[in-house]
Amino acid sequence: MAERNEQVSPARTVPTAAGKPSCWQHRLFGKQLARCGQMNDARKPIDSPTASLVHEDGRPACEVVGVYFSFVNSGATCDEFTRQLTELYENVNGAGDADRRKRLEVVHVVLWSNVADVLDVDESFRAHVGDLPWLAVPNRDYERKTRLSRRYRIKTGVPTLILLEASNGAIVTRGGVERTIADPTGTEFPWRPPHPKTALEDGPLLPCGARDSNEPMLHEELRYCFKGVYFSAHWCPPCKAFTPQLVDTYQRIRERGHDFEVIFVSSDRSEDSYNAYTETMPWLRIPFNQEERRRKLARAFDVQAIPTLVILDPRDNIITLDGRAELIEDPEGLNFPWNFRLVNILTEKYATSLHDAPAIILFVEGEDCEIQFGESVLLPAAQIYRRDQPDYDPNYDDPDDDSLQFYIALDCETSDILREFVGLDDAVPLLTAIDIPRGIYVVMEYGVEITVDSVQQFVDGFLTNKLPINKIKTMNKTSKTTEHMPA
Fold first, then answer.
1. Which Pfam families does this chain map to (predicted)?
2. What is the C-alpha to C-alpha distance for residues 329 and 276, in angstroms, rounded to an integer?
3. Residue 134's closest CA among 155, 159, 103?
4. Could you give the CA distance from residue 439 to residue 103 in angstroms, rounded to a whole number?
5. What torsion do the CA atoms of 87, 92, 96, 99 make, to the nearest 10 degrees?
6. CB 290 within 8 Å of CB 279
7. What's the CA gap between 316 and 229, in Å, rounded?
């Protein structure tokens, strides 16, 4: 196993507000984590941080980081999976040399289904993790636990394991629980997904019933097309509600001259249901009898639920894994193919991200000319900020909590809720920096003209903590921010 001692690249770093580099592990989990095996040492405080995911020289201490969310008092489900995960952890890491980089390190995030029923939270935490071989987010770091749960959309009471590349924080899979159960010894760990192109090329794509041609096609014939890979099923009510929306937007996009094709990947339970469902579709489909091909595509895109719409560019690179949300926000398809944008309109979809990272937000009334003005003054600052992060990849969920976001807020309900939450007046245009994780906001001085230069100065001043800071109104009243600012 000596070959596993190869040279490892230092963990990815990004600039912080003070200009000092910080690796993604520290920004996501904090600089120090608690070691579960030391919880039973009465000489140490229960939350004593003693371990890190990064060596002093910046090298990651493992190949893959598993973020494990488990729930106390949720029945035996989490306890049973914890035992399975412990076996996997021991199998993939082995005994070996203690100095050798681990293949897997687990960061345990312990949550409670109903904390009101817990007499002693610390003792409950100790009992839950005290004998485990990995690391944990300190028990009383409630803010970090909340942010991690929101970032990965954790469902209460359901154990969840998300695997991240230790080198850059990219998501390997959100389905770590399912993968562990299916491969308990970790024979194929870390279950990196296959490239989707191999499954797309593996046979013909058949026409659906409402298509204007009965000719099957090969993937090669779509080499100039943007593609939507649509995972859905006839038995699924949300799917049946979304499919007509997709049909309408698909037709609008094609009418405007875009080369766009949709490929249906079925999760139907019978061929009769599959045939009935595809009769309404005007695009292409993977044959129902090619079950392994359909499974391979689901693994390639780490599909965890349906309906899911993945948008690919003509070279089969992922543009977005969340095409469904993009389409619902933009049913006309005016922003198709929904590439990553440095400056976005603040909608309900993006509102949840404000809980995870600070944002520069320009409030305007909402006329087309004001939107164009907003983009013209914000985009140069956004480009300069991103220029300092050359390894940013929009295909991945960025693990750097403090990555700055740029939004234009129109006169709408989402903006009204945000103004009330923060404590902003109704002035427009209004340039702000809002940092919900820190509970603060900054407003550009009234009377200053909003230009490319003044926006850049404002962003620089915010990042270096040189501007007057205000505390967010609602967060001063209660720490339960999610009850006031909807996700």
1. Thioredoxin_8
2. 28
3. 103
4. 37
5. -110
6. no
7. 10
Residues 224, 201: Cα–Cα separation, whole Å? 15
- Measured in whole angstroms, the distance separating CA 390 from the mean position of its chain's CA atoms is 19
C-beta separation of 196 from 286 below 8 A: no
What six digits make up the tokens of 279? Answer: 């009769």
Q: Is residue 376 within 8 Å of residue 409, measured between CB atoms?
A: no
Judge contact between 27 and 401, C-beta under 8 A: yes
User: With contact defined as beta carbons under 8 Å apart, do 337 and 472 qualify?
Assistant: no
Cα distance between residue 277 and residue 274, in whole Å: 5
Q: pLDDT band for 382, please (50, 70, 90 cuts).
A: very high
Question: What mean pLDDT value characterizes the chain?
Answer: 85
Neighbours of 117 (CB within 10 A): 10
pTM assigned to the model: 0.70
Length of the chain: 487
In this structure, is the dihedral angle defined by the CA atoms of residues 22, 23, 24 and 25, taken in order, positive or negative? negative
- With beta carbons less than 8 A apart as the criterion, state whether 486 and 437 touch: no
Residues contacting residue 97 through CB under 8 Å, at least 6 positions apart: none
Consecutive H or E run containing 325: helix 323-329
Main-chain dihedrals φ then ψ at residue 250, nearest 5 degrees: -55, -45
pLDDT above 70: residue 99:
no
